[in-house]
Amino acid sequence: MVRLRFFARYAELLGREEAMLDVPLPATVADVVRRVRDEIPGGELLPERPMAALNFKHVRLDTAVGDGDEVAFLPPLAGG
Amino acid sequence: MPYVTTEPISPGALLALVAAPECGGTCLFLGTVRDGPNDGGVTGIEYTAYEAMVDAECERILAEARRQWPDVRVAVRHRLGLVPTEEASIGIAAAAPHRGEAFAACRFVIEAVKERLPVWKKELRADGSALWVDPQGRPAVVGPE
Fold it and tell me: What is the ipTM of this complex?
C-alpha cells in the first residue's frame, strides 16, 4: 500500500489531495502513475510522465517503490 | 528552523539569523509578487506547498551551499498563503567573510529553490480570474536526473 499525494492543479483535477493505493510489488513510480491514471477518477487528466517525489525527495519514474511509501505527483514547480 | 511562514517575511529577522562577527559581506534577496505591464493585473498570488518536502528539500539545498561555501551562513524563508502584490514571497540571506561568496551562495539558493522546491502559485487577477502559473513553461514530462 502506498500513500498518494496530489497538489495544486493536480489536486483540483482529481478533487482530492491524497489517496491510498494497493500496488503489487515490485513496482516503480511509473507503475503507480499508470495505476492512478487507470483507476482513480480523474486520473486520466494527469500527465503520463509527471514530476514525482518519493518520500519527500525528487525521483525518476523508474525508481522502485515499497510498502508504506509516499508518492507525490508534482505539477510544474513555481516556488520563489 | 521553519522554512515556510504565512506571515510577512522580515528581512531583519533573516539578517539576524546569518549575522556573525567573521562575516564582512551579507547578501539579501527578496522575491516579490509582481504586477508588470504584461502581467494582466495581478493583485496577489496564492502560494501552496508540499510542506514536509519543502523542509527536506531546503535542508538539502542549504547543505549543498555549505559544502560549496563552507564559510557562508544562509537562511531562507518562503511565504505561503495569499501574498499581495509588492510583498515578498521569499527571502534569502547569505553572509560570508567576503562579498563574493555571499552573492554566490545567495544566487545558488534562489536558483535551487526555483528548480526544486515543491511550491505552487495561483495568480489572482483584478478581473476576478485565477491562474496556476508555470514560470519555466516546461512540459510536465520533465523529471529530476
Answer: 0.94
